[in-house]
Amino acid sequence: MKVLMILCVLVSSSHALEADAENVPCDITIQDSSNLTLNCSRRNIDEIPEKWPETLNSVDKDGHVLITFFNNTISNVSQIPAVPGKKVAISFKSNEIVDIEDDAFSNIERLVYLDLSNNYISGEVLRSEIFRGKYQCTNCTQYGVYGSIALETLNLGHNDIHSLDRYLFQYTPNLTRLYLNNNPIEILDHVTLLALASAINLQVLDLAKTDINSIPLDAFKGLTKLQQIDLSDNRFVTVPESLILVGSSLKYLTFNNNPINQLNDDSFVGLTNLIELEVGENDYLEEVKSSTFSPLKNLRVLHLCHNRNLRYISHKAFLGLKDQWTLKEVYLDNNYLSELSTDLMPWNKLEILGMTGNNWLCNCELANIVTDQGAGAKFQTGEIPFCAAPMRLSGAYITNITLPYCPTLNTEPKNIRVFTLSNLKPKHILYSILGVALIACLGMLLGLLVNAVKSCYNKKIKTQPIRYINLNSDTSFA
Ligand SMILES: *[C@@H]1O[C@H](CO)[C@@H](O)[C@H](O)[C@H]1NC(C)=O
Ligand SMILES: *[C@@H]1O[C@H](CO)[C@@H](O)[C@H](O)[C@H]1NC(C)=O
Ligand SMILES: *[C@@H]1O[C@H](CO)[C@@H](O)[C@H](O)[C@H]1NC(C)=O
Ligand SMILES: *[C@@H]1O[C@H](CO)[C@@H](O)[C@H](O)[C@H]1NC(C)=O
Ligand SMILES: *[C@@H]1O[C@H](CO)[C@@H](O)[C@H](O)[C@H]1NC(C)=O
Ligand SMILES: *[C@@H]1O[C@H](CO)[C@@H](O)[C@H](O)[C@H]1NC(C)=O
Ligand SMILES: *[C@@H]1O[C@H](CO)[C@@H](O)[C@H](O)[C@H]1NC(C)=O
After folding, report:
1. How far away, in angstroms, is 35 Cα from ligand 6 center?
2. Which numbered ligand comes closest to the C-alpha of 137?
């Protein structure tokens, strides 16, 4: 064992020496022959090295290689030397990149992950040529074609992108995850949409904090694999209708911090396969209306938290879902709620319920939800909500309260009395008819009496005809 450890130390120190010798000031960590990390973080590097340390080649041809240039001062990404391995990940996060050369990644066909976030890259720099693979020709005096690269994850977050080149993803057919968050996109223009539409294997799209307020109706047409989208920190006043086009594939929707005022039956139309929904930090959200969640027939997790003006959730918000209830986790923490309806949801079917940070009015309905319907057993440890009102219960755990005067509501959904003909018994009908007849009689009598009095009055006193003058229209009389 000791010998092994010593060997390890020797091997790694020799690696470090080698790196020094080649004047590449990076650390190489070799997990095993199939996993290698070249750490070039925080080393004041300002350009891409012309070659890699020899040891990089010790990785298997099926191995994984991660190269990170995190937090250096590279401004121009020139062509990167070839990297062995089956999956190559490279990070240029937090540099000063303003330009990327044509064919920058063409030596690394197995580049599956590329992080270009936190730089100064503009849309003009992002041309399809930068992602080209190798030039392939059988007879090079005529013409050949450029190959593709394996890129699956591309992080372009925190840059200076307004628009994407329509051919940008021409050579990245396997692009699965695209992060465009924190860019001044403002409007998803025609070419940007063409670019997105060409990334037909996209599963994850991050458009958070891109200053957009709408998504054209056909924007996601063709993105039949899109599973996850983040639209947080934008200027949407409604949840964009265009999501309906990916309704059959979309599983995760994040919609935090947008200026929406309410959620209603239009908000999530067609999102039948959504599994997880997050709507938080929407400062203007006040109301969740009837049937809001009704289209979400497969929802398992709902985060509706930190909406500090959210004061009302309709008791019909989950209308139509109760028979095939799929929700397991519901988080309603840190809103401005004071009451919930007992029949809002089948509380006992939840696994986790979050209700902290609201203004709960501890009344009989809440007691019913928490105690009789078992919601109190779904709070996570340390996450028991408090009563805010009435005064005498303020600050008590809502699981602690006993309200002796509450009627015993049963746990079945309330039987709302509906007046139908079949409910009528013959006796009722008879009473009704008699009642109506009685009222009619009284009316007639009253009418006769009034007429008699009137005629009497008219005879006795000769009154002047009353002139009604409309002050506005009668100026002509003056
Ligand atoms: C490679 O090593 C890192 C830790 O350095 C680990 O997180 C990762 O899962 C490993 N990858 C493989 C494919 O073994
Ligand atoms: C990479 O190197 C930097 C600088 O020596 C160090 O701070 C950082 O923790 C290293 N990262 C990894 C993943 O080893
Ligand atoms: C990068 O390093 C500089 C110091 O060289 C530091 O001031 C800065 O905060 C770092 N940036 C990030 C994103 O870590
Ligand atoms: C980046 O490097 C290429 C090739 O060396 C050069 O043509 C280009 O002008 C450089 N870009 C910038 C912004 O320096
Ligand atoms: C390549 O193209 C040239 C010009 O068209 C032609 O003369 C030559 O025969 C071709 N060679 C092959 C191997 O096809
Ligand atoms: C894309 O993925 C498929 C399936 O994994 C693979 O066969 C193909 O080689 C990949 N394309 C590129 C350009 O790597
Ligand atoms: C809950 O009830 C227990 C026992 O009655 C009591 O000791 C505790 O102070 C109460 N806590 C709150 C926050 O109401």
Report:
1. 21
2. 5
For ligand 1, which residues put their CB under 6 angstroms from it? 31, 35, 37, 64
Distance 98 CA to ligand 4 centre (A): 9
Ligand nearest to the CA of 386: 7
Residue with tokens 């992950």, as numbered in its chain: 113
460 confidence band (pLDDT: 50, 70, 90)? very low
Domain boundary among 183, 206, 229: 206
Residue that wins the pLDDT comparison between 400 and 369? 369
The yes-or-no verdict on residue 3 having pLDDT over 90 is: no
The answer as to whether 181 is a domain residue is yes
Residue nearest to atom 2 of ligand 7 (CA): 400
Contact 84, 59 (CB under 8 A): yes
* Number of domains making up the chain: 3
Counting ligands in written order, the one closest to the CA of 393 is 7
**If you search the block for the tokens 């029949």, which residue do you land on?**
343
Q: Is pLDDT at 468 greater than 80 in this prediction?
A: no
Structure tokens at 153: 């994850």
Q: Are 206 and 175 in contact (CB under 8 A)?
A: no
What is the spatial distance between Cα 112 and Cα 191, in angstroms, rounded to a whole number? 25
Strands 252-254 and 228-230: parallel
What was the pLDDT predicted at 452? 57
CATH number of residue 304's parent domain: 3.80.10.10
The answer to whether 184 and 212 have CB atoms below 8 angstroms apart is: no
Atom of ligand 1 nearest to the CA of 64: 13
Residue 391 main-chain phi, psi, to 5 deg = -45, -45
Name the residue of 47, 79, 101 to mutate for ligand 4: max ligand atoms within 8 A of Cβ. Answer: 101
- What domain range is 239 assigned to? 213-321
Q: How far apart are CA 440 and CA 444, in angstroms?
A: 6
Q: What is the pTM of this model?
A: 0.80
Q: Are residues 179 and 257 in the same domain?
A: no
Co-location of 35 and 184 in the same domain: yes
Give residue 141 CA to ligand 6 midpoint distance, Å. Answer: 28
